[in-house]
Amino acid sequence: MDAIGAAGAWLIAALVLGIAELAVPGVFLVFLAIAASVTGAAVFVLPDLPVAVQLGAFAVWSAVTVLIGKRWYRDYPVEGGDPMLNDRSARLVGQVVMVETALVGGRGRVLVGDGSWPARGEDAGAGARVRVTAVVDGELVVEPL
Fold it and tell me: Where, residue-wise, is CATH 2.40.50.140 in the chain?
């Protein structure tokens, strides 16, 4: 394969990796795409570069771009729109729920949506409405309205 063909192959690989990054969620293939494009540019400039050196350059540039990306995301973290998106129990704090099994001796169960959660708090009869104030060890802490 001539130098133009080899450089073109690396650039096509970079393009395929870039498209794959768009199709597959995650932030990793873009770094490999950058490494492939740098390797393609190097092969274009240095046409007599052996295949083993090309693969070594790709490996080195892959490591370099991944480390740069890792540092970038550490220094500039991506802020989400909802910090409690994957923390269902934290999302319950402040909600008003109904007592399913009477709170007697500070313990009972409350209905949250279509599920039942263990709860603790002041005594309350079944059907009473209470507010969730905290979640401790998977148990809702509630207070009467």
Answer: 88-144
